[in-house]
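Reminder to self: tokens first, then the designed residues, so the page reads top to bottom the way the pipeline ran.
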């Protein structure tokens, strides 16, 4: 097996070059031919990865977090080329969705070398110009995308705690946003929801922001997306809701509604959506399921 091992030192969290070296050594010890590729920017990394795939890489592995994994997803989605993840970023939410977040470098590399794979869904975002991108975990729009804006601009602290701080700061200017949400339900029926929302979140996976279970029941292998809508309430009530969000028990609160859908169209003025922690497009956008579009390496069952 020939593996292209992508490490992006320009990533915000900095893909750990020590982890990349360790992973490459471990893969080679298993007899896996491993080429380490690294770009100084996301665009350069994409070009290098495309070149490696064109030259005949059998698989792609990523050392890094959700942003670098998302970059690789764009290139391997729908190709059947398997993706291995060695979690080394700030959030690692897609790795968590796949049950890989707690793996150390050795265990993650061993899972790739073991060759065991499974197919999972991706979510596909289509913009008004017809362009599209994929994401693996969660798309945020509204309050939570503003939190991403703030968290991404923060230089300190590192790790998931900066999302917690960003959430509290954004509460100071919290307000409802006029949304139009169009849902295609599993039976093919449609539903339209209009009015002010604090946020509208779409989950292929369960968590974002370094482990916050915003879509606690989402399953990346069920052919559906989970849409979580939060209606406005007083700041104090929403602040009291936060512990339930962190516990994943918020979906039973009256201001929160959840739909399981085939696709969803989100429209709201002045809102940029984030997916896998990075901006993916200005609303309106449509999100649908790309069924079993990604093949991933997975550890053997315990």
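Designed residues (302 positions):
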């Amino acid at each position: 097996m020939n593996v292209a091992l992508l490490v992006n030192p320009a990533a915000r969290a900095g893909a750990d070059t020590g982890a990349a070296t360790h992973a490459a050594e471990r893969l080679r010890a298993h007899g896996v031919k491993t080429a380490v590729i690294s770009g100084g920017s996301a665009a350069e990394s994409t070009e290098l990865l495309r070149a490696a795939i064109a030259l005949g890489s059998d698989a792609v592995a990523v050392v890094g977090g959700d942003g670098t994994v998302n970059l690789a997803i764009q290139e391997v989605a729908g190709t059947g080329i398997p993706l291995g993840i060695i979690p080394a970023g700030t959030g690692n939410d897609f790795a968590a969705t796949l049950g890989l977040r707690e793996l150390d470098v050795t265990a993650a590399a061993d899972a790739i070398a073991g060759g065991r794979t499974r197919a999972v869904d991706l979510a596909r975002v289509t913009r008004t110009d017809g362009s599209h991108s994929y994401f693996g975990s969660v798309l945020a729009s509204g309050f939570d995308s503003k939190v991403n804006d703030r968290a991404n601009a923060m230089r300190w602290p590192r790790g998931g705690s900066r999302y917690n701080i960003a959430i509290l700061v954004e509460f100071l200017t919290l307000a409802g946003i006029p949304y139009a949400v169009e849902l295609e339900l599993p039976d093919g029926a449609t539903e339209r929801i209009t009015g002010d929302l604090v946020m509208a979140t779409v989950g292929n996976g369960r968590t974002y922001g370094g482990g916050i279970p915003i879509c606690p029941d989402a399953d990346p292998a069920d052919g559906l997306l989970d849409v979580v809508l939060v209606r406005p309430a007083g700041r104090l009530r929403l602040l009291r809701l936060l512990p339930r969000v962190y516990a994943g028990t918020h979906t039973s609160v009256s201001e929160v509604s959840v739909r399981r859908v085939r696709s969803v169209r989100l429209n709201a003025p002045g809102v940029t959506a984030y997916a896998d922690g990075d901006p993916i497009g200005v609303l309106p956008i449509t999100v649908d399921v790309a069924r079993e579009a990604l093949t991933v390496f997975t550890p053997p069952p315990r």
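The chain has two domains: 2-115, 127-290.
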